[in-house]
Amino acid sequence: MSIEDYGGGQTAQADVLVVTTNDVPGHQVTQVIGEVFGLTVRSRHLGSQIGAGLKSLVGGELKGLTKTLVETRNQAMERLVEQARARGANAVLMMRFDVSEAADVGTEVCAYGTAAVISRS
């Protein structure tokens, strides 16, 4: 697996900047649009479940699960950006992830933050 399988985030060419901070140095917030979020629920297939169960007996990283969670977070983030863009934002401030179990059948991942329009100071 490559480094791309274990991480995520934006490219340098992103048209909607997503940050975990309240503001962006060198920029001012000119308009707050409001809360935006991207949500996805994923389940693992039976083979993955069995493999993870066996691996948990001996310990170590569950690489298949790690890859699935990275893909899930990235999809939630993409949906967050799509919603912000559709509402006219060029930034999402204070982005966070929330992860929970969804009815014992999958993992729910929600990326959320505050959509805003920012400009250079």
What does this structure look like?
The chain is of the alpha+beta class. It has one domain (3-120): Translation Initiation Factor IF3 (2-Layer Sandwich), CATH 3.30.110. 31% of the residues lie in helices and 37% in strands. It contains two helices and four strands; from the N terminus they run E-E-H-H-E-E. The chain has helices spanning 46-58, 63-86, and strands at 17-18, 27-42, 91-102, 106-120. Strands 1-3-4-2 form a four-stranded mixed β-sheet. A hairpin with a 3-residue loop joins strand 3 and strand 4. It is elongated. The mean pLDDT is 85.
Key descriptive features of the protein:
UPF0145_dom_sf; UPF0145_YbjQ-like; Translation Initiation Factor IF3; alpha+beta; 121 residues
Topology:
Blueprint: E1 17-18, E2 27-42, H1 46-58, H2 63-86, E3 91-102, E4 106-120
Parallel strand pairs: 1-3
Antiparallel strand pairs: 2-4, 3-4
What can be said about this structure in brief?
By secondary structure, the protein is α+β, with helices and mostly antiparallel strands. Helix content is 31%, strand content 37%. It is built from two helices and four strands.
